[in-house]
Design brief:
Four copies of one chain form a homotetramer. By secondary structure, chain A is an alpha/beta fold. Chain A has eleven helices and 13 strands. The first copy, chain A, folds into two domains: 157 residues, Rossmann fold, CATH 3.40.50; 161 residues, Dihydrodipicolinate Reductase, domain 2 (2-Layer Sandwich), CATH 3.30.360.10. The longest helix of chain A has 16 residues. The interface between C and D is large, with 37 and 37 residues.
Chain lengths: 343, 343, 343, 343
């Protein structure tokens, strides 16, 4: 059994990690930390875990975490980078669900996250944990930067088009819609039910931290610079991201459906729907799945990709478990075989 | 492997049965019928099952169903009773998720459901499938009447009080609130999102079909007639029932918390929360669990029990699988170990 | 024009008062205070008021408030009682939407609200602002204690029964369900969309501050002590309260429908629905209306009253405007003629 | 008083028209028809209208409708065109809220709506009722084609850019999100709460009937052909449309904020928000308003416009009343002064 620790388990990615790891056949949860909830039973904070997780939150403590085989950071940005060096040195593998190791340039990180990076020397080693792109590197990684939720949905949608070189790389548009859990479990007026239920809005149009992450990932895939307009929206639901992606075709003869189906034929967690489909976020509720559909309206020059994930699973905790499976040589789907809850 | 068939798999209890049975370690889904969707892949109607259920709906056909070890009826009321006699005769076990075999008196059934009963001779044999009351009988039953969703939540809440004889049996009140999936997957204006979202209402106050079922069950438990006022409400959520139960104590010295904890100590699917708790329906979302809390406000004469279930799981498909497990000598929790999705 | 000031206009009752007063034909909004938002345009915080309210929040300041004819307190409990004496002395009428003047006994207030009362000498003078009970007293009041949201829905439902003496006063039950806006516009995890959407729960079962207020009001109406069990619930919607009320009939011959219709025949804001009706909260969304239905299930001894209001209107800001209309000799319905938004 | 009739008043645009017209100072509602609900009191179907609308539905009857000054058609597509000629001949003005008179080419209408047009000779006379474009023509029109909900939100957002000629007309993208009431009050499984709540999806990507309407309107404004990709989505809320619009700037020096503010400075129902704003649909809930914000992310070549309306008001019934006001020489804002309900 792999001994797993979670740092910062009181947010939504934390409780989702707990749900997945508690049912994982090869994992033993040994440590879960939270400064604020120290001493509290996990199942008191999250009653869905009653009878399933018999741990209490403890104060963060690197000595304790060193006894783990793998440590997941489900913390705010800027936390994981404080403890990661010492854990790696102790032979513990680290999977960061926050943004600390996602960007390869320390200065770009500082620009978007507002603080200097604590261990820029690790940025080159950290592997960006999108298995559909970096599977082999993840298998041997000590440190995985788990992708953001929007970046996962957007990259998986653009990937086949960029790899095949069939779109104009300079004019991508990602119009993305997220459920409110993406904003975290934080005491903020702006995400109260009374504020965001029965309403819809865009946010962060002038600039969102996921933009450089997406741009970096797409550029790596394309092998050349990619320009992107990224507009996130808040939609009145708990879980789910729907990315509607637009690009201009430079090759009008490409069979888009075949392109997508072939690219993802061997991927256990990417599902290309039949032509003319419209994936619903509920079809991936609670599961580590991305469902895609590709359209070419009026047979014009614009390709439209519809990409849905559960932001807390394929967009966070599930992908982290997928990465752990790869890092430890387990079957990639271990502990991730649930079926989406519908309705 | 147990060969399982589902009749009428296009409703919400049907798709939930599919989700549970597709992941059940001891079950092979062999037949699923639907007159309306004949020929359609199950996963086309319910995309959460893509890659997990590789069956198409077929026309209902008793010959085909006879090849099953167990047949679940997830049909409208009045359907199961047409085919049950022939299936039982063929040695197939039957679990009816509708109401056909819930009431023991054929005339009462006819009064509430508006049509004569097709096989009243089976009513005495049918076992009411509430394992917390009838576990032993279920183990040897050929025919199980799976309880209604409201009746499950209400009976589990009143059970310890009636068995212990500590409340006045003549003045029970069950104020119950259900998510909209309880109304089924039917083309009706009254359950459109635009009609029932962001609103709340009672319904069926003059009389609801679950009333005689609850009364019969409680009377059986108490050994004496029980009188009940039952008021169901529609609440703007998909899944979940919250029953708020009121009774007048006749024994003021009873330790209510201990009474509940002891009654359910050995039950795998009933969870008594600590004193002063308020269970949330989301804590059982997607799982076969009933969570209960018992209160005595202002230390007065009224006991208040809060009981939550997922109407589609412990209130329908999950309880049906629990009953199947009992009928076939499997571990009672087989295939029912999921953890509730929260948030 | 009546010069109106609002203290604490950044919560939901505040913005609702602004919406109503901005459209009131006899009112000029002159002051709105908020310590936290000082200097901010009201319409920046609440964009629905763009082009309609051209005021900025100012620091609370009694001198400024003394220039008003009426001051509304839409503040947390314990605030209004600090400034009310000086305002009354200056000839300003005061309507408190919080709880400071609702309870007649200072010690009871201190017990439930946890701080000593700042001006207990005003408790006797303050008029409880439920026009359907205290219309005449409100017309001449200097100080009105605007009722709580739950107390409004519950009292209007029990009123005809207690006045007529047809129920047992010792065993009332109020099972009430509220939208989330009732919890206010506060940065609290417990009322995030991701926490309370698609879920249902009771809260405060051991004791809720509205209990003594309801008990006091019902006792005043009955002329004798009334005992009540009050169980509030949180339902996943923004606005609306649905109170389901239970009482035991002591007079079995009473015509309940006639009793309710006669009691409220002259009331502009109480609407008794036809027999067998089930009022929906959306039918009063945004309006100063209480809609009621009365049932006697199975013709038994229990009467069931269904009572719906919009917690922010008839349960708060609308009732405050209704009280203001009465205090200033305006038509009671002035500024309150809107039609509920449905769907 | 203007005598107004409504044909087909049982849908959501119908009840919204009723709400607005019942409170309109210059209108008397005289006839409301519905084949299905003939004889039923309007306020029985829509309880928000109790005490405000004292009419019963009658069988559709042109003779009766001829007694009106204006008739609104809130009917399915293909209905208004049957009765419009005879009403116009009788001197009745007609406002069609469906699509019968929106497209100027009968063959294009037939192509998208699947039936031949019943009175193609009226298409040239019909005025497309977008007052911000066609105010003068509406004032003298006998027949107004009220715009669709998506087309209203999309056209108002692109209008200033196309009129000023600052964008590439060949690559517009409209990513639009609608509340579920936009799908109407129809008994369809696909819009049940249990199907579309807590989920998000695109629909109609291969082609949606609002596409030719938008294209026609934008082409008229631009004076040259406009090409557009239009992707509608269903978002789990009742009311509201949020259109996120993308275009490529051909003039990099244009002051976008000034352009929008100047274009709409005199418009009573279009509100341009300050720079960096993100309009929320709730800010227009229940009111005849379009709120816009214009962005240029990363100062790049793509302009992003955010446009919100209430699909039932500025997107349907409210715009119809605005058109009526213009047609009858009333103040354009008569009966449309409500303030949006927030929260």
């Amino acid at each position: 059994m792999i001994k797993a620790g979670i740092v910062g388990g009181t947010g939504y990615t934390g409780v989702e990690l707990l749900r997945l790891l508690a049912a994982h056949p090869n994992v033993e949860l040994t440590v879960i930390t939270s400064r604020g909830e120290k001493g509290v039973q996990v199942s008191q904070l999250f009653p869905n875990l009653r009878g399933r997780v018999d741990l209490a939150f403890v104060e963060p403590d690197d000595a304790l975490l060193k006894s783990c085989d793998v440590v997941f950071f489900a913390t705010p940005n800027g936390t994981a980078m404080q403890s990661t060096p010492v854990l790696l040195e102790a032979g513990v593998k680290v999977i960061d669900l926050a943004a600390d190791f996602r960007l390869r340039q320390a200065d770009e990180w500082e620009q978007w996250y507002g603080i200097p990076h604590a261990c820029p020397e690790l940025l080159a080693e950290a592997v960006y944990g999108l298995p559909e792109v970096n599977r082999r590197a993840i298998q041997t990684a000590r440190l995985v930067a788990n992708p953001g939720c929007y970046p996962t949905a957007v990259q998986l949608g653009f990937l086949p088009l960029l790899e095949a070189g069939v779109i104009d790389r300079q004019s991508l548009i990602a119009d993305a819609k997220s459920g409110v859990s993406g904003a975290g479990r934080k005491a903020e007026v702006g995400i109260l039910l009374s504020e965001v239920s029965d309403s819809f809005k865009a946010y962060g149009v002038p600039g969102h931290r996921h933009l450089p992450e997406i741009r970096q990932g797409l550029t790596a895939v394309a092998g050349q610079p990619v320009e992107l307009v990224f507009v996130p929206h808040l939609t009145p639901m708990i879980r789910g991201i729907h990315a509607t992606l637009y690009a201009t075709l430079v090759d009008s003869d490409v069979d888009l459906q075949a392109l997508f189906e072939q690219r993802y034929a061997a991927e256990p967690f990417v599902d290309v729907l039949p032509p003319k489909s419209h994936p619903e976020t509920r079809s991936v509720r609670g599961v580590n799945q991305c469902r895609l559909a590709v359209h070419r309206p009026q047979n014009g020059k614009t390709v439209v990709v519809l990409s849905v994930i559960d932001n807390l699973v394929k967009g966070a905790a599930g992908q982290a478990v997928q990465n752990m499976n790869l890092m430890f040589g387990l079957p990639e789907t271990a502990g991730l075989e649930g079926i989406a809850l519908l309705p």
